[in-house]
Amino acid sequence: MIVTIEHLYTVPTWTTRIGYCARQSRAFFAEHGLDWLAFVREGIPAQQLLDTGNALAAHLVEHARAVEEARDGSQA
After folding, report:
1. pTM of the full structure
2. Using an 8 Å Cβ cutoff, are 61 and 50 in contact?
3. What is the three-class DSSP state of 35?
4. What's the rounded mean pLDDT across residues 22-36?
5. Strand partners, 12
């Protein structure tokens, strides 16, 4: 599964805000050797995010899966 920028900007957070901050997300990508611009253009395989071991990345993957499952269910 591919996680996209749309998922990043719509993930529920622990505050009243929705989505992860782009600035901090870019820093996260740099810290883990991930290509931010490629992610923005094409998305990133969920496993690459999970492989970071980061709880927020795992939460983003869970959100992306739920969004895509809901889309697949609504298209049936």
Report:
1. 0.90
2. yes
3. coil
4. 97
5. 18
